[in-house]
């Protein structure tokens, strides 16, 4: 299946509001000062097949390029942004680092820490990935990263637990979802797993309510127009607060992590302790790593975020993102060569298998065999538009304010108006 949908959020933006920095850029490769090169790689898989993918890719690249030594560092996903910001500020950057595009990447570009890859990536690789995906890593018309995975979101669920609760159809509307929640509770099943400790999974609920409440122009221009005056933003917050009153989430969701261990939100789904989780297309791979046999969950399936009545959003609109990799400004030439290597059809097929996700290289999508990803890919292909995750579109400072503000509201420490004020104040600070 070909995936050609554009993820829109005005991602080809001017790099403004950069991260404060000190020192000078100093990628460990130190440029091309000699025949031997050392390439440091920061990636976000710490266990299982995902971590093994990077070990295998590094070994294969080294074999094909004996003058290069690749050193891979695994960093927990929730720690990646903070460690990268510290690296930007100190000037001690890895040569290859994980990037998600949008204003988050634009901020690092503005700090002068990212290599311009325009004209340096294999044209065949670029063609296989497509301009739509590459646009998320484009700033002021220049390419600063290469996507590895396409990651639209929605609700992953256990077919077995739905059947146990007597749910025969996946929810199409919020009323349907609340009915399913009632049935799951009656069957003694936690309806929705939520890793509120990590903030962003809770904020995903606000993102999707915003996509349903707000028009396309507002949602897709956030990278350049961080304006929250339209009443739809408050409507989305009110809708989330109202939904939370149904008590749909697992007990202790505010202290539950998203992806670390059997008691994380992904772990609850993996071990049939919760029926659903709102996540992106990386979730099947995370869940697989947390099942008792560390294999894909056999009864895992997917349905889109339900429609919400009264909103300005287009039916079927989705939220999503891309995981990719960039080169630091002082990285050696083996950096872009490594990105070409892991973006090739062969290694993208291996990536799809290892991470149980959707590869960015269109020639490799045939390797996707996880059943829960098939309906997601179909919905993605039909969606009128797919907006970039709000925290990615907004950049780290405003995005973090949004994410933590949602958690505070769900914890009863704020209300919808307080949430909107917090986001507005963060946007005003730049």
Automatic annotation (TrEMBL):
Q: Which SUPFAM superfamilies match?
A: Periplasmic binding protein-like II (SSF53850)
Keyword Transmembrane part of the UniProt annotation: no
PANTHER family from the entry? ARABINOSE-BINDING PROTEIN-RELATED, BLR3389 PROTEIN
Pfam annotation, one family: SBP_bac_1
**Name recorded for this polypeptide:** Multiple sugar-binding protein
Q: Which UniProt keywords apply?
A: Signal
Q: Which residues form the signal peptide?
A: 1-20
């Amino acid at each position: 299946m070909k995936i050609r949908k554009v993820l829109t959020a005005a991602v080809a933006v001017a790099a403004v509001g950069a991260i404060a920095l000190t020192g000078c850029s100093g990628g460990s490769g130190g440029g091309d000062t000699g025949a031997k090169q050392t390439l440091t790689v920061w990636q976000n898989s710490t266990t299982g097949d995902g971590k093994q993918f990077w070990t295998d890719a590094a070994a294969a690249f080294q074999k094909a390029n004996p003058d290069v030594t690749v050193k891979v560092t695994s960093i927990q996903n929730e720690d990646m942004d903070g460690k990268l910001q510290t690296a930007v500020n100190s000037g001690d950057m890895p040569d290859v680092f994980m990037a998600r595009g949008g204003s988050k990447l634009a901020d690092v570009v503005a700090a002068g820490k990212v290599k311009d890859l325009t004209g340096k990536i294999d044209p065949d690789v670029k063609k296989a990935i497509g301009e739509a995906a590459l646009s998320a890593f484009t700033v002021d018309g220049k390419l600063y990263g290469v996507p590895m995975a396409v990651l639209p979101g929605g609700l992953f669920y256990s077919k077995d637990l739905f059947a146990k609760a007597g749910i025969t159809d996946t929810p199409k509307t919020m009323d349907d979802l609340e009915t399913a929640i009632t049935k799951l509770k009656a069957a003694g099943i936690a309806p929705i797993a939520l890793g509120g400790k990590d903030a962003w999974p809770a904020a995903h609920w606000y993102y999707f309510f915003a996509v349903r409440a707000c028009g396309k122009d507002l949602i897709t221009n956030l990278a350049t127009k961080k304006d929250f005056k339209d009443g739809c933003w408050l409507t989305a917050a009110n809708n989330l607060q109202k939904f939370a009153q149904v008590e749909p989430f697992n007990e202790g969701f505010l202290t539950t992590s998203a992806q670390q261990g059997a008691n994380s939100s992904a772990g609850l789904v993996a071990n049939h302790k919760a029926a659903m989780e709102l996540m992106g297309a990386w979730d099947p791979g995370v869940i697989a790593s947390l099942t008792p046999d560390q294999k894909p969950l056999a009864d895992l399936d997917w349905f889109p975020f339900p429609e919400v009545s009264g909103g300005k959003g287009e039916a079927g609109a989705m939220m999503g993102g891309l995981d990719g990799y960039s080169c630091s400004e002082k990285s050696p030439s083996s950096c872009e060569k490594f990105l070409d290597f892991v973006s090739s059809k062969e290694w993208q097929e291996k990536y799809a298998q290892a991470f149980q996700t959707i590869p960015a290289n269109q020639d490799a999508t045939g390797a996707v065999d996880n059943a829960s990803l098939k309906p997601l890919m179909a919905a993605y292909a039909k969606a009128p538009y797919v907006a970039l995750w709000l925290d990615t579109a907004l950049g780290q400072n405003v995005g973090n304010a949004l994410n933590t503000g949602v958690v505070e509201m769900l914890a009863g420490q704020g209300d919808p108006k307080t949430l909107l004020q917090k986001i507005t104040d963060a946007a005003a600070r730049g």
